[in-house]
Design goal:
Radius of gyration of chain A: 13 Å
Number of strands of chain B: 12
Shape of chain B: globular
Order of helices and strands of chain A: EEEEEEEEEEE
Distance between the termini of chain A: 36 Å
Number of helices of chain B: 0
Oligomer: heterodimer
Distance between the termini of chain B: 41 Å
Helix content of chain B: under 10%
Strand content of chain A: over 45%
Order of helices and strands of chain B: EEEEEEEEEEEE
Largest sheet of chain B: 6 strands, mixed
Number of strands of chain A: 11
Largest sheet of chain A: 7 strands, mixed
Structural class of chain A: mainly beta
Number of helices of chain A: 0
Amino acid sequence: NAGVTQTPKFQVLKTGQSMTLQCAQDMNHNSMYWYRQDPGMGLRLIYYSASEGTTDKGEVPNGYNVSRLNKREFSLRLESAAPSQTSVYFCASSEGAFGGTEAFFGQGTRLTVV
Amino acid sequence: AQSVAQPEDQVNVAEGNPLTVKCTYSVSGNPYLFWYVQYPNRGLQFLLKYITGDNLVKGSYGFEAEFNKSQTSFHLKKPSALVSDSALYFCAVRDTGRRALTFGSGTRLQVQP
């Protein structure tokens, strides 16, 4: 089982460039999430999608956009990258948003903005 | 609002000794509580969860956690630590009616041989 697959694994951007982080899950989960991980701050929620066709802002949405392309795929876009967006980005999915089910995480994308 | 606190940045323990990683939470409703582990350059892996029922929850790799409602705590424990348990541990909470998890800042567990 592939689980949650993120691409790319590493990326270096120049300030002002744009890019899209891709995420796909093969577990038929309804809910998908994007988190960023920064030292000493744990994981912070950027955006989530409770079901296909819906997206909602999380704790730190500024500078990001998302698309729930279908049930499997949830992409995160940086329109104009800034050094403050240097981070490790994790995509996750879970069966239900309200049921207290555990989330499954991808291996992360390490993004550096110079 | 939901929040999680992990008061220790790092916990050091000798192999074979019991370990505890602390977590306290704040929610307005009933909490769903989770522990995740992260090994270097990897994503988070689920360890265990508390939804309802027994306050002592058993999970993967011999870990367990005790839910204490009066102290709003959910400490992770293991009776006998292994060197391979060395990793970054995250506590997370979801309040009833909320859609996503809130994570603590993480505790690095170092088990010395």
